[in-house]
Amino acid sequence: MKLKIPFFLFLGLSLTTFAQENLTYQKPSKSIADLADYERAPSVSMDTKKEYMLLTYRNTYKSLDDLNQDELRLGGLRINPITNISSTVTYINNLKLRKIKEKEEEVQVVGLPTNPRISNISWSPNDTKILFSHTTASGVELWFIDVASAKATRLTEATVNANLGNPFSWMNDNETILVKMLPKNRPALLDAKKDLPTGPIISNADGAKSQNRTYPDMLKNKNDEINFENIITSELYKINLNGTATLFKNADMYAGESFSPDGNYIMLTTIQKPFSYIVPLNRFPSKSVVYDKTGNEVKVVNEVPLTEIIPKGFMAVRKGKRNMSWRADKPATLVYAEALDAGDPANKVEFRDEVFLWNAPFDAAATSLVKTPQRYSRMIWGNDNVAVVSDEWYDTRNTKTYLINPSNPSQAPKVIFDRNSQDVYSDPGNFETRKNQYNRYVLAIENDNAFLIGDGFTKNGQFPFITAYNLKTLQSNRLYTSAYTDKKEDLLEIEDFKKGTVLVQIQSKNEYPNYYLRNIKQKNKLTPITAFKNPFESIKNVSKEVIKYKRKDGVELSGTLYLPVGYDKVKKEKMPLLIWAYPAEYKDKNSAGQSTQNPNEFTFPNYGSFVYWVTKGYVVLDDAAFPIIGEGKTEPNDNFMTQLVDNAEAAINAVDALGYINRKKVAVGGHSYGAFMTANLLTHSNLFACGIARSGAYNRTLTPFGFQSEQRNYWETPEVYNTMSPFMNADKMKTPMLLVHGEADNNPGTFTLQTERYFQALKGLGAPARMVILPKESHGYAAKENILHLLWEQDQFLEKYLKN
Q1: Is 455 marked active-site?
Q2: Which residue from 206, 409, 439, 576 puts its CA 20 to 30 A from 491's CA?
Q3: In contact, 453 and 464? CB cutoff 8 Å
Q4: Sheet holding 52-57, edge to edge
Q5: Could you give the strand order of the β-sheet that contains 297-304, starting from the edge strand earlier in sequence?
Q6: pLDDT tens digits, residue range 52-103?
Q7: Catalytic annotation, pick one of 329, 391, 745, 795
Q8: Does residue 119 carry a catalytic annotation?
Q9: If you ran DSSP here, which 8-state letter would residue 274 be given?
Q10: Section 703-716 average pLDDT
Q11: Active site residue: 684, 741, 779, 789, which one?
């Protein structure tokens, strides 16, 4: 006899099954909490002469209260309307100074504000002063430190406007600062809940094609427009270190301020109207005007219209002057690029871009400097006869570097590097720069040699290097190669080219990164600068190695393998395995098979990995390589799913072959695109017992004009978008999954709605899933309460679905 259940009872059972779980914030087990709740070492900033070192201290995490402040989300900005600074700022709470070459204790900077909330630190051009902003309960103040006395002094009231980032710029005299200040007659912000609209919200499409990503925090209505203009409008003041303030420019929407190298001119860029509801403020109209140092207008040098319409492709750019800046080795010359292909990668042309020089006072036409076959990317100025130009093309992953003679544009550029940008083993390094007479960074040249510092990735490991590159013979001479096999050495900066002094950072898997001065001309001469201690003693001796293995199609893969604390390699007990990964797209198998992992990198557990779980009896494969390759005319995503599963299978096989794991107890996890990866692996393979997906996007039809490295739109390749969308295949997902997302995700494409809708689909289809929304969090998580609870959630989930 079939039992009939009354409908109201069935409804009650359903509600009970799907009821929300009323849970307060939890903390993870002690072994994880001890690692997560640590004291952060200070960050280091040095003057250009390497005489003084500024140590900046901050809390390891923000608090939930830090995230619970008033916030406006306008034009791609997130700002606190009370304090007039970004609501995402991570504040410094203490400052100390120390002479680098003297073994003295750090000196506490005296006179700091009570309960400091410091940001926007900037050394003066002559390194004798340090500017910083301090955020009070009512606004932002400007302060400075006298380096010699280590004394801080306040310069302004809490009326600085930091809504568009760093609100001040040093002038060349080292005594005067140009500062954005709130207008004295600033109107009150409109309240969307109280100020009624005067009409509907209307947008038009005029028939022109435009592929815009799904940007967060856009303007939505007229009130937003008014408030946006309000928060970014500033008056510009010249403020002397004695506190004297003089109005330099009346109120406007200042978005950029840049002094010429000689200090006689300043280029001011202002945002113009109309605003947009579909693109962020960096694509709003703008106007750049050059003024002399007294504030008199010299020339309107650029006017950029609203850029809602742009061709398709990552190499697409707008028409007109772009990348406008001052030439670093001349008193007052502007440099800019213009597209020769109308900004459209689909157009076939001999040269993509042309770079121009324009000398002050801009009463003559700009002159052509160089044309680039690919999209112009950057310029490193040297002197009258030498500059280094780079261009790039995404579709082929090619980048070229040229030597040019700025004094003779008719002289053909010399190609000195022509390489695949993803081929890390062939990377020649980055040219070293130093300050010139204008306090601008230019190419460092000694005896016709420029210098390159390289990361030194090879198939046998990482060995950073310094190369002298002769600008006349175009021959290279290796000056130094790090020989460490048990440590990792980062070559940061050449301090003295004649003496051979180099600033380096050295670390090992259980030695915290510290700074040293190395003399590359004197063997083993290493002078320590800092001595930060390892805050993670409980895992300092954990087994850590980079393993290399092959995918079934022969592609070389790698990952950093951690064994549980105290693991006996002789007994080889079969433990559960956690894999953390993030897919990357490549155009060739050779580049995809290269490894940038170093087993001697300091073991630094953080919420963005599974490393904590070595204390709980898990084997961890961190940063497992998940290349997605599309060679020739084939795009990587054309075979995304097959390669994704093959990557996972190869990783599990490799660790299993070492004898460490129970391959029936394997979990996978990832953040953002790694979460997307996780959901697809659980849907399309039987390799995993469970998975953890954080802040991902699961329905690609909601990002129809491209995502990650996909340039094609949904209507060109609907099969790619649909096949790759876990949401579209939710009925196939039967593996337990923990879905986590920040409530206020600010990343294009990964709106919180993605997780909410995916979870609803999984729940409705009977899949075993748990969704955790972290209050107030953006794409990256910051509050201590949320991070500790996240670790607890992951720990409980893994204990339930993997270990037990």
Answers
A1: no
A2: 439
A3: yes
A4: 43-46, 52-57, 94-99, 107-108
A5: 254-259, 265-271, 286-292, 297-304
A6: 999 999 999 999 999 999 999 999 999 999 999 999 999 999 999 999 987 7
A7: 745
A8: no
A9: P
A10: 93
A11: 779
